[in-house]
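A further point concerns the way the authors explain their paired sequence and structure data. Nothing conveys this as quickly as seeing an actual entry. An entry of this sort, consisting of the sequence and the corresponding backbone structure tokens, reads as follows:
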Amino acid sequence: MDAQKDVIEKEHGGVIKIADDVVRIIAGLAASDVSGVAGMSGGIVGGIAEKLGRKNLSKGVKVEVGEKEAAIDIFIIVEYGRKISEVASEVQLKVKDAVFNMTGLKVKEVNINVQGVAFGSEGKEEM
């Protein structure tokens, strides 16, 4: 299959490169759609998880993109009462599938970093 890909690239006279930001956005959207994810987190700022809205989904995601592979770190806030291991596993699966299906990149790892727990319907997070 790799031999076919090399032939296709030579026939078309170029190589397709996918920007890190594209992979970040795909991964962020996939993660935020998982039930139990209250929001994406921009990381720890002064000991408090900074919850980000839909406009900033890519900021809760760090990626390393190579020619054929990607490694992804996701920072999430989980809804209170949800089993964190199940939510994290679902995020890993959804992110891997979304990135592969949309870019063709093999995702070698998806690391989940739970930055907080959201209580109540307002989605306020507590550490």
